[in-house]
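To whoever picks this up:

The parser on our side crashed when reading a file containing two proteins. I've narrowed it down to the boundary between the first structure block and the second sequence. Both blocks are reproduced below exactly, byte for byte. First block:
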Amino acid sequence: MVDLHDLPAATLLSIKTVVKKNGMFKMTKKRVLERALDKSGNKNIKDLMNYNPRIPAVIITNENPFKVYKTLDKNKSPALAKAGDIAPYDLVVPAGDTGLPPGPAIADLQKAGLKASIQGQTIKVMEDKVVAKQGATITAIVADVLSKLDIKPMEIGINLIGAWENGLLFDKSVLAVDDKEYENNIMDCFTKSFNLAYNVNYLTDKIAPLKITEAQMTALNLALNAGVISKKTVDMFIQKAQAQLNSIASALPADARGNVEVVAASTTTTDDKSSDKKEEPKEEKKEEDAAAGLGALFG
């Protein structure tokens, strides 16, 4: 169901051409249309008249109602407001230079509630102003001001006010889907459902590989803490032992370390590499000293 109120003939002709590619476009009187819908025998279809079209017409097509709405919406074009039109959203006149020369126009702007003043060779609006709230009737003075400022809040195109499919009625507000918002909602639902499935151990082809990796890491950590030697842990135990050895040896005096060499963290910079390094003479230890050092380390 569409409403053709205030639709220019040229615009109607162009849109009818688009619609007829995938369906039929029928215009008739309200009473004739109401009888046709009532006698069609389709469930709830006569309720389309409850949307109160001023100049009704119907589009008969096998296309999805959402796709039809999107097609019609894409073929709309901006238009100036007229007195008596309903504001589709809050109509705001922004602050700034209007480009209008000084003269009677400043009085019209002020009548519409704008704070306007003459600055130089033009009239300027001093602050943003809502001249018509969403859903309010646009007055003649507001329509005139919007026209002077070339603000086009209205849209010219077929107004789809409701749709019927398989016994279900779709309101215009339901059909007006924001694609980007819809995609974001799907992504948000996927993320939340994925987190829920992961946390409750609900295994799917997406969750199972992650759970296997988590189990492997948990088992490896448990084996390390429990001292279980395996092909996976032996290298880690050696590294851990070497780290502990270095830690203990570094705390001992040099003459008590035996032949244990402490591996210090590297802090060499580029400048250090280019500078001359002085090597400290290595002091040979006897086998007895080595044995004493190891005895002190592990005893």
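<<boundary where parser fails>>
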Amino acid sequence: MAKRRGKIEAIESNEVFLKDGGEDFDYCVGQFFKDMVMRNLSFHTKRWYKENITVIKRAFLDLGHSLSPIDATEEMLKDVVFYCTEKLNNNPTTVNHRIRTMKQLYSFLYNESFIASNPAERLVKQKGKIEKIKPFTEDEIQELLSQPIKQEFVGFRDYTIMLVLLDTGIRLSELINIKVTDVSIDGGKIFVVGKGNKERDVMFQATTREQLRRYLKIRGEVHHDYLWVSQDNKPLARKTLQDRLKLYGERARINKRVSPHTFRHTCAKLYITQGGDIFSLQQLLGHSSLEMCRHYVSLWGSDLQKMHRKYSPVESIIKR
């Protein structure tokens, strides 16, 4: 039997009935994930939500709160935030992931009429320390690129991957999912599918082009179309690549995070400090807005000062 929403205003203006199932947490979560499938969200996005919801459910149970979404209150959700902060000792970034997940979940349930009100509507994110992005220096890049043993397949592959990461700034998920047919050697570009299934082309230049050409020849024909392969010809796994890059960082004695994301930041910095504009950088990196690109500019102001000394409009005119 469908239930009524409990708000008098809603009833007086337009009578709304609640769908069955709002009392069952697992059923509601299932509907939430079904909606993600309908919207064609990526596997990694769905996995991210699943990880957060698992923690949220555990918090509800440990706190003795009713799991039923129709019983959820703002205070209960605040208790979950406190639990994650104090009991699980999650950092602000992780806590904000939990908050974002609750806001998305309960907003969906409210909009789909499983619950009468949205208890997560007024939840606010925690303030956390904003860590300065630490891209690689040019010396560190040279050290990293010298680590793979290019006479062996794995080393040759990893060296090629590092060049692609540095030249294109693509995300790990984008890199791993590249197919051979996505690569245009002559066109100097790779077709990638980014966040929100947004499609774009990323560019590479002569050095990367030649390395990719050689890699494709060495890779040869295998039973699938993924560009990056393991020694046993299976598609390269995310964790394998992350571990390989970490190992090269340790061998090169680099005292900062060595990951695909660090390559992405390094690509952005070099692009800006060597004369690239933030509008084309936004397209290259696949950002939905200019906010992150502006953040890059603010972080590397000293480098931009050097650029301005070189390219100052006034200086170029006066010194003629």
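After patching the parser it read the second block fine. Residues 3-111 form one domain. The chain has two domains: 3-111, 138-314.
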